[in-house]
Amino acid sequence: MWDTLKNRGYAVASQLLNSIYPSICPLCSNLSDSHQHSPICTNCWSGIKRYSGPSCRICAVPLVSVYSTVCKECLTNAPSFSMVLNYGIYSDALAEAINLMKFSGLRRLANPMGKLFLNLEMPECDGIIPVPLSKSALRESGFNQALLMAKVISKKLKTPLYMDMLLKRKDTLPQVGLSAKERMKNLKGAFKTSGKINKLRLLLLDDVMTTGATARECSKTLMSAGAKEVIVITLARAGMI
Ligand SMILES: [Zn+2]
Ligand SMILES: [Zn+2]
């Protein structure tokens, strides 16, 4: 009864907000019909699917075969993180939603996108760390989408958010267009830690994981500073872009 009333309340509030601020869904150009994931309409939002196919049990890269459980990269060059928990594949509605948040400045999407993480089987941990941006990158974009989503999760899971424990100390070239090896080289020494990290089990949050170079370098930095374990959580796993 209460739930029905509450849902009805949300629906009324949503309709009201949409009538005051009507918005067009950037994916299909229809009117956005829900404030919860506005401006993306309910139909397009329902296109954001969780990936459940075979994947590497360490880095979560989708695998073609159901028989192998660890990818070649993790076998030959084990990462510092213990595993990656990933939501979906970087394509279609999920990729568009991430890009809208990141490149079109739609920071309000951080709330519904952050909630997608709650579908993952999140382990017990001592804190959440968003992958940081350099000072100039932050100035340019105005916000760090990983931090905004980490705030949502931290609040829901009642887990501390460490926003200054990992910092990006230098600007690096955009990773797009670089090979996996070049990406690692590009990021080498790019991060530093501050504060007491000893024996902490940490969740490192990034929006998209491509080769994993960023997650690898951040984890390496945290583990060298004394972290007990780093588990990476991502919204989307991408191929090379
Ligand atoms: Zn739509
Ligand atoms: Zn792997």
Rounded mean pLDDT score: 89
Task: Give, in order, the helices and strands.
Answer: HHHEHHEHHEHEEHE
| Number of helical stretches of at least 4 residues | 9
The small-molecule ligands in this entry are: zinc ion
Termini, distance in Å? 48 Å
The neighbouring-strand order within the major sheet is 1-6-5-2
Cα-atom Rg, whole angstroms?
A: 19 Å
Count of individual beta strands:
6
Gross morphology is: globular
CATH class placement of the largest domain: Alpha Beta
- What is the name of the CATH topology of the largest domain? Rossmann fold
Class derived from helix and strand content: alpha/beta
Helix content: 25-40%
CATH architecture of the largest domain: 3-Layer(aba) Sandwich
Largest sheet: 4 strands, parallel
Which ranges are low-confidence, i.e. pLDDT below 50, for 5 or more consecutive residues?
Answer: none
Fold topology:
Layout: H1 2-20, H2 42-45, H3 72-76, E1 83-89, H4 92-103, H5 110-116, E2 127-130, H6 135-141, H7 145-157, E3 166-168, H8 180-187, E4 191-193, E5 201-209, H9 213-224, E6 229-237
The chain binds zinc ion (2 copies).
